[in-house]
Recover the amino acids of this structure.
């Protein structure tokens, strides 16, 4: 058990820190939350800066244009960029973290050459068309149909919870190509152009008031067969290859940010006198234990992935992490509301909007209930059932 | 960074598990429970020979020369197997107290205001100073003869059948000063956290095993989400506590140790409660082992560093 970073890892950190110190002061102001073209421009400009400095696709394999960094280097990158206040992955999320790695793992040479470089350079944005109104936790129930017509598929159906749909160039789309097959075996993975005729995007407003995601209606959208990644009807496996392997790094930046928020909450409580309330104070102490342990769990999972070598490890450790983290994040912002007292009703106060958005954490990317099923069945080996 | 067990650490853990399975397996554990004998002196000496107490003493002093990370692996196994006796105090006393390292002496701990565990069987007492667990040097810890303290002590009917308790008056006279003071309370808290971790992991296994075997409504109860989710929650608690305990053993940082104790106490107590629930009526019987884990977990939560003290340490660290 070694928590010390190697000399090589320390050098990587020092170089990154020095680069961040030169590049961050020159960044433009952050765009408003509902200014989607502005957000796209801001996020892609940052991706371009990363690309020019050699940090784009850090965790991608070298033969896909990535840097082939170790999980620990990736952890250091995410930790340092968060500490320095660098922009988030933002609109580049799906391209860098799911669609890109899927194409890198399962795409043909032509597909890799066409789609991967623009993701790394920040030239093209991807969104994800997986969930449907009738296929949420039960993703394999998806109904969006793709019917073969010569060298095209004709796609009709609807998708939901699609982030960045308004500004995306491409959509990684799961469609049903064989309605007669068992449900996991009749699905294909397609890359769909978002400006193709028949694609309609309708933004959805979240309970926090902003439009973070959208519904997508597909009416006989024509997608070339050459835009299918993997074999026809093999889309479920193609998708899971990337989803089910992880390097433990999914929430590195967020845990760093939560620990900073916790320290800020303590400082505010000292300032406004609520620190003298032992219940509140001890609650903050408990959250300190929680987030420190979540950081150690991150290091544990990253070390495990590092030992496993390229590709990472089956993502069950990620379920353990996500279950605890999503809950801890909600508790953090409940504590923030207690520190703020009556001011927690003021949406312009720091933490008020974060408290609202934290409500999505136990739902998005697999609800806590689904995560518990995964932990119980895949780690503990309990029987499947209903 | 390589925050995983090394090959040597894995081998050490496997060796201790094997030793305890052979020497204190379930049958022996239940026999000891029925006999009501607290510390088994022969087993104590075997633990001494295996290096349980001398683990962190330098090799030049007859020890094994290992560190806190290895010690938490040992105490985790002790917690799993419900091994009774003042293991932590004797481990901490190895070196300064004659015979402790070899398992010849049984050393209990006296922490002001707390009942003393195993006073009746102890040869010596480690008297903790009133340190606050924040890493500031505790007032000198001392060592006293157990017999003199016992004269003015009353036995308590202990909630944990494996841990006899004695209520003692405040110690009037000072004992022999101990050279390793200042770290005793935090190290004791860390090792107690390791025992809690072992218990939490064990009750998770017990619950999963029962949920997979017990059938109702024509199916294993572990196929029902209501039961499945209890088990998943247990694993999450145990694994978070594991990372907290192991990391605290590596850094030996008092704040990190406070966090580890807090989370491990929580994992041990709540996992034992959930394990009891998964076992249904059987979980409420004397025959089941679940109550032994719960009762020990309750006791350990109040020892070395309580939740209230740990939370204050962790809160103080934020400012």
């Amino acid at each position: 058990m070694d928590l010390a970073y190697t000399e090589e890892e320390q050098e990587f950190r020092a170089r990154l820190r020095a680069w961040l110190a030169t590049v961050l002061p020159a960044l433009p102001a952050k765009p408003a939350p509902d200014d989607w073209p502005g957000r796209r421009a801001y996020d892609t400009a940052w991706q371009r800066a990363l690309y020019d400095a050699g940090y784009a696709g850090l965790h991608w394999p070298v033969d896909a244009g990535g840097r082939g960094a170790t999980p620990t280097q990736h952890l250091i990158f995410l930790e340092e960029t968060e500490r320095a206040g660098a922009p988030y992955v933002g609109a580049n999320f799906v391209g860098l973290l799911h669609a890109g790695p899927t194409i890198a793992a399962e795409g043909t040479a032509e597909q890799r050459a066409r789609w991967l470089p623009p993701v790394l350079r920040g030239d093209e944005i991807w969104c994800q068309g997986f969930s449907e109104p009738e296929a949420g936790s039960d993703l394999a129930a998806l109904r969006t149909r793709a019917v073969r017509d010569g060298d095209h598929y004709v796609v009709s159906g609807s998708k939901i919870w699609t982030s960045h749909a308004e500004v995306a160039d491409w959509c990684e789309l799961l469609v049903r190509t064989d309605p007669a097959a068992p449900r996991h075996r009749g699905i294909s993975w397609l890359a769909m152009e978002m400006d193709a005729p028949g694609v309609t995007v309708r933004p959805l407003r979240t309970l926090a008031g902003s439009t973070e995601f959208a519904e997508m209606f597909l009416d006989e959208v024509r997608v070339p067969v050459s835009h299918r990644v993997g074999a026809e009807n093999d889309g479920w496996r193609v998708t899971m290859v990337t989803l089910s392997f992880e390097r433990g790094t999914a929430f590195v930046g967020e845990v760093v940010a939560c620990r900073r928020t916790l320290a800020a909450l303590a400082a505010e409580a000292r300032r406004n006198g609520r620190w003298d309330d032992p219940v509140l104070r001890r609650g903050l102490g408990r959250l300190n234990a929680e987030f420190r342990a979540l950081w150690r769990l991150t290091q544990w999972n990253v070390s495990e992935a590092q030992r496993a070598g390229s590709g990472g490890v089956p993502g069950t450790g990620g379920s353990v992490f996500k279950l605890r983290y999503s809950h801890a994040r909600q508790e953090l912002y409940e504590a923030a509301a207690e520190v703020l007292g009556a001011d927690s009703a003021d949406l312009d106060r720091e933490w008020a909007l974060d408290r609202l958005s934290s409500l999505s954490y136990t739902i998005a990317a697999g609800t806590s209930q689904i995560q518990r099923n995964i932990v119980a069945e895949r780690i503990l080996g309990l029987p499947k059932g209903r | 960074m390589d925050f995983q067990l090394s090959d040597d650490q894995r081998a050490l853990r496997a060796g201790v598990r094997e030793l305890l399975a052979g020497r204190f397996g379930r049958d022996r554990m239940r026999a000891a429970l029925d006999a009501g004998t607290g510390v088994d002196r022969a087993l104590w000496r075997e633990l001494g020979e295996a290096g349980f107490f001398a683990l962190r003493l330098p090799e030049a002093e007859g020890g094994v020369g290992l560190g806190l990370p290895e010690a938490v692996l040992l105490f985790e196994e002790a917690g799993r197997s419900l091994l009774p006796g003042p293991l932590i105090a004797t481990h901490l006393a190895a070196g300064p107290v004659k015979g402790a390292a070899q398992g010849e002496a049984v050393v209990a701990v006296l922490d002001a205001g707390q009942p003393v565990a195993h006073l009746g069987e102890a040869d010596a007492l480690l008297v903790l100073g009133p340190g606050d667990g924040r890493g500031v040097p505790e007032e000198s810890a001392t060592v006293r003869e157990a017999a003199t303290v016992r004269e003015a002590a009353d036995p308590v009917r202990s909630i944990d059948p494996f841990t006899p308790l004695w209520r003692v008056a405040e110690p009037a006279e000072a004992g022999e000063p101990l050279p390793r003071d200042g770290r005793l309370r935090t190290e004791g808290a860390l090792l107690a956290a390791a025992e809690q971790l072992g218990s939490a992991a064990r009750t998770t296994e017990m619950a999963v095993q029962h949920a997979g075997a017990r059938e109702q409504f024509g199916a294993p109860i572990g196929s029902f989400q209501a039961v499945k989710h209890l088990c998943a929650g247990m694993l999450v608690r145990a694994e978070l506590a594991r990372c907290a305990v192991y990391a605290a053993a590596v850094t030996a940082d008092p704040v990190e140790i406070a966090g580890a104790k807090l989370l491990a106490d929580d994992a041990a107590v709540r996992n034992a409660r959930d394990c009891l629930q998964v076992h249904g009526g059987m979980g409420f019987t004397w025959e089941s082992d679940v109550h032994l884990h719960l009762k020990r977990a309750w006791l350990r939560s109040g020892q070395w560093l309580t939740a209230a003290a740990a939370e204050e340490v962790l809160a103080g660290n934020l400012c």
Summary: The mean pLDDT of chain A is 95. Chain A touches chain B through 54 residues (CB under 8 Å).
